[in-house]
Amino acid sequence: MATSMLLPFIQKVRIPTSGDKVYKEECVLCFDTPESENGLYICMSLFLGFCRKHVQAYFFKTSNSLFLHLKRFKREVEGTDVSTSNPTKLAIGLEGGFNVGGKKYEYEDHNSIVLLPEFHVISLPCPDLPESVQLSIGSILEIDAASIQEEADALAGTWDGMAREITKHAELNQLDNGVKIPPKDWQCQVCGLKENLWLNLTDGAIHCGRKYFNGQGGNNHAVEHYEKTKYPLVVKLGTITSEASDVYSYDEDNMVVDPYLPQHLAHFGINIKDLQKTDKSMVELEIDLNQRIGEWAIIQESGTKLVPLFGPGYTGLENLGNSCYLNSVMQVLFNIPDFVKCYYEKCDNIFNEFILDAPRNINVQMAKLAYGLWSGEYSNAPENAKDPKEPVPDNNLERAVDWIFSHAEEMEVDSPAATEVKAQFRDGAEKYKLVAFISHMGTSTVAGHYVCHIFKDGRWVIFNDNKVALSENPPKDLAYLYIYQRISVS
Predict the structure, then answer these.
(1) Cβ neighbours around 138 below 10 Å, total
(2) 3-state SS, residue 330
(3) How far is residue 110's CA from residue 114's CA, in Å, rounded to a whole number?
(4) What does the buried/exposed string (b/e) look like for 461-485 if buried means 16 or more CB atoms within 10 Å of the residue's CB?
(5) Keywords assigned by UniProt (predicted)?
(6) Most exposed among 273, 344, 370, 437, judged by the fewest C-beta atoms under 10 Å?
(7) What are the backbone dihedrals phi and psi of residue 31, each rounded to the nearest 5 degrees, phi first?
(8) d(CA 255, CA 257)
(9) What confidence tens digit (pLDDT) does each residue in 68-107 have?
């Protein structure tokens, strides 16, 4: 029976190889996964994955009828010990990465063959299936998902995700000053610090590194030594092994690769083969900083009990380990009416036009994100959640400032220039109101944590990655980036 149903479609079935990308983790047009209510449908011809809603549009566009349906059930395992080991990679939910949930789960997969447009189902395993179909199923399930392949391609030639170029100072002129470095018991030549130490590869000087935002780290003596001497290359003591070392170029302002590091170390009497790793690398330190993100209470309004918000336009974004800045920017952009109109209100047209190239088309990816943020399908209140109430003003100065920012459109605009300028701008005169701002805490713009606050529906809302809530004390004075909207004047 199964064979007879599939015969008209066998010729379109393909067996994916290592050169094919199989999109089996989430729908290419939205964010449904095999764990979603209706699972995921993988085309057995082009290997694109779709949710139940979008797979029908794909069928009518291509006439591809045969799909592998993936449905995964996730169950919490009770009474099991959750690993408390420290993360070793900049990743979330992966081995060696951050265990954000603190819970352990087991998964059960129910797979089947589905024939569109009637959604005929053939449960698996089914020994009566043609060999080509069985081989295709096996390869789709076995091969790495497209996202994993793309990440591996992006990280090729890198170490722990950080691309490092060969330094332009590889042919370094080292001083013949007789300095010999012992294999251990190092300390800063200025302050005596015994951790976060950097060896200058020109003169053999040992100094402490930069001070971190939390007061730990060093006393900046390695930087000061470079500013005095302009000797560019340093290597972090305690990270040196035959496989990897942290080498930094002050002149190039980046972590670099020194192809002649063994020779440069030998100049100071160091045999790289005799060294063992005793200190944290810069990636490991960044992981430590990510673990302490929760300490930055001010910009996250941690001191108040925030009321969570749900529904269209109130959908959070997961932090992928270092994506908080992108999350904040995307939330702000997709609260600009023009973005909503272009990518959300017209998403069906975009999906239909570019569906065959969905994973690579920028318009589809923007529309997919807009759909995720504005459809409301990924922001549902728990069954016991209560409707948020408007905060009652307490007549203090901060509330007054909030009111001015929030109700600027209600204030009188008497400027004579308003009438003159009106014709030049499509959305009003040169009067503005604050509608969003992005806040940052950290040592630099490339480190730390970002959140955004957006004025929506007459109230301030905080978007802190996947957490969306009514803001009680929007920290406008700590913002990194402000977004203003011109006030329309009738």
Answers:
(1) 12
(2) helix
(3) 13
(4) bbbbbeebbbbebbbbeebbeebeb
(5) Hydrolase, Metal-binding, Protease, Repeat, Thiol protease, Ubl conjugation pathway, Zinc, Zinc-finger
(6) 273
(7) -115, 20
(8) 7
(9) 999 999 887 776 555 555 554 444 444 555 454 556 678 8
